[in-house]
Amino acid sequence: MGNNLKNQHYKNMGIMLQMDTLTFKSESVAYCVCSAFELDTSEYSFPYIAGWSSGKEMRELKASMDVIRKTAGEMIDELTEKIEMMLEQKQEKLLAAVEAAGYRFVKEESNSQHLQFIPDGTHRMQGHLFAKSWNEVERWVEAIIEKGDPIQKERVERVIYPERFEQSFEEMMFTRKECRLSIYHLDENGPGRDQLFVGMEDLQKKGIMVTADQYRCVYSSQYLPNEDMNAIYSIFNDDPPADYKAHSLSVSDVVIMNQNGDMKAFFVDRFGFQELSDFVEERKKILGMESDIQKKDILEQTSCISFYAAECSEFPVLGEVHHDLTLPEALEAYEKIPAERMNGIKSVGFNLQEGSDYDGMMDLMVGGRSQREILDSIPFYKENKLVQTALKCVEQYIEEKSLNAEKTEPKEEKSQVQKTKSQKRREEMSL
What we know:
Layout: H1 2-36, H2 42-53, H3 58-101, E1 103-105, E2 115-119, E3 129-131, H4 134-147, H5 150-160, H6 169-175, E4 179-186, H7 200-205, E5 215-222, H8 229-238, E6 254-259, E7 262-268, E8 273-276, H9 279-286, H10 292-300, E9 305-310, E10 321-325, H11 327-336, E11 347-352, E12 360-366, E13 369-370, H12 372-376, H13 379-383, H14 385-407, H15 421-429
Antiparallel strand pairs: 1-2, 2-3, 4-5, 4-6, 6-7, 7-8, 9-10, 9-11, 11-12, 12-13
């Protein structure tokens, strides 16, 4: 019995010594790896390593050091490779963001401590950009997202934070009342590849129709109100945006232009442009988007939802309130309620009667602000097609009202020197 206890004791001691050695090796490897990446752990590591090494024979120390050196070296190589890959991915993302802002990277003139970027045709007047590191570039990109030009900000933010956008650029063109455009090229691997670079006259001779399903969207963005198709053609041929990666605007390409809600599609012909009457609606169907007429029908063809305008959003009984209206009628009544009244903040809302637990009155807009955040926080309303359609219509109304307000602002004095279209475009989109 005594021998068994003694043997077990020696066995436990051996395990403890072995574990102690393994811990020493692990600590040493960790110290070497951290040191390689300029992380100082000496305050913690040195006392432990020195304590274990005391009294050890040179042969034992040498064996441990060989294992430590080999293991640390392998880990450093593997981590270095992964870090370099992560940095490369980060640089690629930042480069895409810089291009979205309107600058091209001059690789041949750059090194790790001197990065040079030249403006594309849009930003030519702004001059070159220089940075000492990609971290500095990252700070510059974040500054654009925080307080940059609206067109620049949107494009850069979509590169860095794509999760913030529910819709693609092309989808936004169909849902926003701004100056937006999308450029379409024939799919070179699709059924329309034989029509590539073929003019309208030749297509008509062959009895070929231009249809949206043969095209793919290669670029979409906001543009300035003073640009027409001739200006767009010039930009995308002479000096296109830095993030435009497709071929220059050519025969057989199609451009959809949204001029504050007025949408038209143009076929780039050998001489001039041909308007395509059905391309816009065809493209909407491909994207699974409803036309404006369909959106109105959803609300008009049902008795499950009606709308109201109230002087006081919180307590409608306190002031003027109009019930059982269509949405356009409710918006009209909302506008007629004087804003200076003291009963509360006026609102437009809906009254849902579908036989569910969520039936009743809810605000769509309060004091000129959409209530999407509140409505979308309730899953029933977020998934209800009637509510979401009404919400989109109200947001469109808010946006149109804002654009109309901007148009009525006092114009600049006539004595100011007039600028060319290209100068104004470059200045308005510059940093």
